[in-house]
Amino acid sequence: MRRAKVTAVGAYLPERRLTNADLEKLVDTSNEWILERTGIRERRILGRGKGSAYMAIRAAEEALRKRGLPAEAIDLVIVATVTPEYPFPATANLVAHALGAHRAWGFDIEAACSSFLYALSIAADSISSGRVERALVIGSDKMSSIIDYRDRATCVIFGDAAGAVLLEPTEEEVGVLDYLHRSDGSGCTYLHMKAGGSLLPPSVRTVRNRLHYVYQEGRQVFKQAVVQMAAISEDLMKKHGLTADDIAFFVPHQANLRIIEAAAQRLGLPREKVMINIDRYGNTTSATLPLCLYDYESQLKKGDNLILATFGGGFTWGALWLRWAY
Ligand code: ACO
């Protein structure tokens, strides 16, 4: 049976760090509150004049370099992002062009924090079907471009970054083995951006009223995230008779350390089996999952079972079973 395996991972992290001490100067908050409530110490911020494509290109270039493949070998580029370079065309087109992936087609996927996992699933299916040979799946978000640095409830959480995975076909029983995804549009109330779309296009009024930023009712999102991320991971594991002992790593979306710990506890997974890097990058939306794979790559070995899980605005959520291939 033909499957899609991950053969390389790349990442891009902007150099500028925004620490909790920096945020203490911007809003009424404290290092203690941020650490205790979110587990975040610092995040990265991309400077003005650069967008999501800039980070996506660099992450993808690293993945290709590590695998020793030219960009012409790629036939599909999917960029997962809530902060595209432009409303249109798709960031993926710009990225493919800059990489020199002239044979590729591409598009963006927007499913808030679940964007990367949805994109990975679609790319894997494209490869399994035989239509695509090699795909780049890139999660890239410049969250600082849609964060209100006067709103203490959101500005402490988010950061900028990109991560990329290269997918190639395999006949072995490795790679993307299965996934389950869900969405529920009633969750829009609790997590959305009020203006900038076709309903409320940008205007002097929308800018004055600060409507072009992430709006979040954190407590509601928190509860849903813990329950749904654990439940869908459990469903996927049960479907395949997997227990906590079979899992090498749980790879959760990095939204809040408390959400990660609560979800892992529900799944009966000890801390050493959970990928965590939220302390250094915050919530980078579409980049959290590939960034986890990137940071833990040296600890992974062929045959390791990983459960990737996510929860985000929409609401959107899902889990994916990935068996490491190298
Ligand atoms: N510093 C100090 N106090 C703060 C801060 C801050 N940065 N932010 C909020 N507070 C205050 C609030 O005003 C509130 O004060 P009050 O009790 O006097 O009203 C108090 O702290 C508690 O507020 P809560 O919102 O209940 O705090 P909570 O413990 O829930 O933490 C947080 C807030 C971090 C946002 C949390 O709810 C969370 O992580 N939610 C989920 C986020 C998530 O998963 N998002 C999904 C992905 S994002 C995406 O898809 C784009």
Q: How much β-strand is present in the residues?
A: 25-35%
Distance between the termini: 19 Å
Q: Major sheet, described briefly?
A: 5 strands, mixed
Percent of residues in helices comes to 25-40%
The global form is globular
Low-confidence stretches: none
Total beta strand runs:
13
In spatial order, strands of the major sheet run 1-7-6-4-5
The total count of helices amounts to 11
**Spatial extent as radius of gyration:** 19 Å
H/E series? EEHHEHEHEHEHEEEHEHEHHHEE
Small ligands present: acetyl coenzyme *A
Class of secondary structure makeup: alpha/beta
Average pLDDT reading: 97
Q: What is the secondary structure topology, with strand pairs?
A:
Elements: E1 3-12, E2 16-19, H1 20-26, H2 31-38, E3 42-45, H3 52-67, E4 76-80, H4 91-99, E5 105-109, H5 115-128, E6 135-142, H6 152-155, E7 160-170, E8 175-183, E9 191-193, H7 204-208, E10 214-216, H8 218-239, E11 249-252, H9 257-266, H10 278-281, H11 288-296, E12 305-312, E13 316-323
Helix pairs in contact: 3-4, 8-9
Explain what you see.
The two termini are 19 Å apart. By secondary structure, the protein is an alpha/beta fold. The strands form four sheets. A five-stranded mixed beta sheet has the order 1-7-6-4-5, with helices on both faces. A four-stranded mixed beta sheet has the order 8-13-12-11, sandwiched between helices. Strands 2-3 form a two-stranded antiparallel ribbon. Helix 3 (52-67) crosses helix 4 (91-99) and helix 8 (218-239) runs parallel beside helix 9 (257-266). It has helices at residues 20-26, 31-38, 52-67, 91-99, 115-128, 152-155, 204-208, 218-239, 257-266, 278-281, 288-296; strands spanning 3-12, 16-19, 42-45, 76-80, 105-109, 135-142, 160-170, 175-183, 191-193, 214-216, 249-252, 305-312, 316-323. The model has no long low-confidence stretch (mean pLDDT 97). A hairpin with a 3-residue loop joins strand 12 (305-312) and strand 13 (316-323). It binds acetyl coenzyme *A (ACO).
